[in-house]
Design goal:
There is one protein chain. The protein is α/β, with parallel strands linked by helices. Helix content is 39%, strand content 19%. The strands form 3 sheets. Strands 3-2-4-5-7-6-12 form a 7-stranded mixed sheet, with helices on both faces. The protein has a 5-stranded mixed sheet with strand order 9-11-10-13-14, with helices on both faces. α1 packs across α2 (33-42), α1 runs parallel beside α6 and α3 packs parallel to α4 (79-95).
Length: 353
């Protein structure tokens, strides 16, 4: 298959169309605006609907309405915009409908900066809206993986009837790389068993709802949802392990930062240091079993992130606090360098080599 050179945001948009996305509702914000621009041009030409809403709040509620019909629906934003969408995302989770949410992260809090960041890890995995609910969170580390995970996001959302977030960042969104696209999906999964598409007097009504007046009814729904989440944790967690078989130091990193870490690992290996990298591809469910396997010979673990250490707690919990876990990161939109990470590896290895 022929490769084409594309910017990450535009490749994501093209992949969404090929994955059967028929409706996009969004609002422009840097550094994800190219995604919306691409869809604004392409969706009307290819049988889809593009609508720029009057606000992020309006956009996410349009997503709820579109998703309730069983249509493949997507929205995208950047960090402050996702914050505004959080209530609507909670409604979507409470209504048990699938949709796809893209966050091209930037620095925060507040308006912060428009530079690349990974400061939304907590927001995505722990605090995206009120109530007991989860999202599946996918974290690509290349433009090609942005494309690959796009189809997977739609499929997982429909399989489990829940929102799925692709957590990108300003680095992945703005960089250009050669990519291959899969064949376009001709017919997404049939959602007629639950979707609100009009009965035509041929079946019972399908009710899309997140309001339960009786406490027992709501508890029953939440418990069922968590039974589903347990199945997702068992079967959908995913990670990349790089040179971990004999690693005495394991570096954990997700998204674009993992590319920097891989370079540092290669440099350290060239100097005889036994170090490997563990990269979670699903941030939720967090791949605990894979991390334990990666750390089977480890004496130290280092988490490298573009934030102040938001994934560190999940790493410690997955390891049951049996190994020392340290942290190195840059924040505010500053990208760590391979040499900075290498220096941290050498510290854990007993000093300069």
């Amino acid at each position: 298959m022929e490769k084409v050179l594309m910017k990450g945001n535009e490749a994501l948009a093209e992949a969404a169309i090929r994955a059967g996305c028929k409706c996009f509702f969004g609002y422009p914000i840097t550094p994800q605006t190219e995604l919306s621009e691409y869809l604004a041009k392409q969706m009307p030409k290819r049988g889809g609907v593009f609508l720029q809403a009057e606000s992020e709040v309006a956009a996410i509620n349009m997503v709820l309405g579109g998703a309730a019909t069983g249509t493949r629906v997507m929205t995208s934003s950047s960090s402050p915009g996702i914050s505004l969408k959080s209530e609507g995302i909670s409604y979507i989770a409470g209504s048990d409908v699938p949709c796809r949410i893209v966050n091209v992260e930037r620095g925060g809090p507040g308006l912060g900066s428009i530079q690349p960041s990974q400061q939304d890890y907590w927001q995505a995995t722990k605090g995206l809206g009120h109530g007991d609910f989860r999202l599946i969170i996918l974290a690509p580390n290349s433009v090609q993986e942005v494309v690959n995970l796009t189809s997977r996001a739609f499929d997982l959302g429909e399989k489990y009837r829940m929102p799925v977030m692709l957590l990108s960042d300003g680095l992945l969104g703005q960089m250009m790389e050669p990519v291959e696209f899969p064949e376009a999906v001709s017919e997404p999964a049939d959602q007629s068993a639950w979707a609100a598409t009009g009965t035509k007097m041929a079946r019972e009504h399908h009710i899309i709802n997140s309001l339960y007046i009786e406490a027992n009814d709501l508890e029953e729904q939440v418990v069922k949802r968590y039974e589903k989440y347990a199945k997702i944790e068992e079967s959908e967690s995913d990670a990349e392990l790089y040179l971990c078989d004999d690693a005495e130091i394991v570096i954990t990193a997700f998204g674009a930062t993992s590319r920097i870490v891989k370079s540092a690992v290669n440099k350290a290996r060239a100097e005889g240091i036994k170090v490997g990298m563990f990269r979670p591809i699903t941030l939720w469910p967090f791949p605990k079993k894979q991390l334990l396997d990666a750390c089977k010979n480890a004496k130290n673990v280092l988490s490298v992130e573009m934030n102040m250490g938001q994934m560190v707690e999940d790493v410690k919990l997955a390891l049951d606090c049996k190994l020392p876990v340290s942290f190195f990161g840059r924040t505010g939109g500053i990208i760590p360098t391979p040499n900075e990470v290498l220096a941290e590896i050498k510290k854990l290895n007993g000093g300069a080599q």
